[in-house]
Structure to design on (428 residues):
């Protein structure tokens, strides 16, 4: 059975996965890039933007698990663009002509539009559907491979609350954001459904993996 | 200059330092002992309740820093007893005749009472004072040694917000409590005043230390 996986999902110590004041200029609002610096420094993160080099330690080991075995991605509207992207018929995502997904990619939105075929194997499909239904569509497209749930926090929380996530990799960055969108709300006792493992990195971030109990 | 230190301050992944529904029977409410199991398993934790044995790894190394160099403790009313202890003239704390403080110990409360001298060097004093003022009293009593800020979350948060804490050891336990009293509220960008170090333990908890920048 194909699994549903979340990778490289970064939060602050106080549990915020994104800041306040999201815009086209500030995709993460007042959080800036602070939640993702750990990843940009890795070999995986640098390769995503076409640069060589990068660290190859524990941060990279976790980061690169983003790729193997994935046949489709599901993401929330908040990941695909800044607030209001639905009013821009030309918006094609943040990622330029060749987005880093390389599979069918399902964007959950109450205002669906026709699919957009990008370079490198990514096709954006727009779905107005609840989690389980969206997942069924993505799973079909994944052809037996796993489905990556790409975020943002609202979608990850909804899928976790619905018991639909098999592997959840969360990265705690040692900053106090103070405001934004929280991950953990409504997920009391989540750990009871998972085996949880923890390892900190010399960079100061802590990787937690939630693997669903058999 | 004597420092203000917080040790072994445990929170859940979602930032709660205590649960909901605190009472004489459930000092941590629905959290039970889950936030403190890591400490009870250490040599330090076992010795506190007069038992031999216990683990001696990274959890113990951090836990035992609770003791050396401390000349006084300051704690909130919420640590000294269950809700309503102020109405019980015979309440002498949770810890039996020989509490684990062994120094003058200042309990912040809006309803002060006369001091209580316990066995083993602990004397409970009751103070109705704001953080800086309470600290001045405790510092005087500490005679040049450090002052430990013992919790609970409201008091730790107030002292952090007032910039009065020099060393803060916080332990993130990989559970989602969902409700209770949060630590991080109102502390946005706290990390900017500190050098932060992170290490996870094989037990699954993560130790963070905030050391005030020189």
């Amino acid at each position: 059975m194909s699994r549903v996986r979340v990778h490289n999902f970064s939060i602050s110590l106080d549990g915020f996965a994104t800041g306040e004041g999201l815009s086209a200029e500030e995709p993460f609002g007042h959080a800036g890039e602070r939640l993702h610096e750990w990843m940009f420094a890795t070999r995986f993160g640098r390769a995503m933007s076409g640069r060589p080099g990068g660290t190859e330690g524990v941060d990279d080991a976790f980061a690169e698990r983003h790729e193997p075995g994935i046949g489709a991605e599901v993401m929330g509207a908040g990941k695909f663009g800044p607030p209001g992207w639905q009013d821009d018929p030309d918006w094609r995502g943040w990622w330029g002509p060749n987005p880093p997904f390389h599979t069918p990619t399902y964007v959950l939105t109450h205002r669906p539009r026709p699919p957009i075929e990008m370079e490198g194997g990514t096709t954006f499909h727009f779905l107005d559907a609840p989690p389980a239904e969206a997942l069924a569509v993505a799973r079909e497209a994944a052809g037996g491979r796993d489905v990556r749930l790409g975020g943002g926090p609202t979608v990850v929380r909804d899928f976790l609350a619905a018991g639909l996530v098999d592997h959840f990799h969360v990265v705690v960055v040692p900053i106090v954001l103070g405001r934004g969108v929280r991950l953990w709300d409504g997920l009391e006792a989540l750990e009871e459904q998972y085996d949880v493992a923890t390892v900190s990195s010399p960079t100061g971030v802590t990787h937690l993996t939630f693997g669903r109990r058999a």
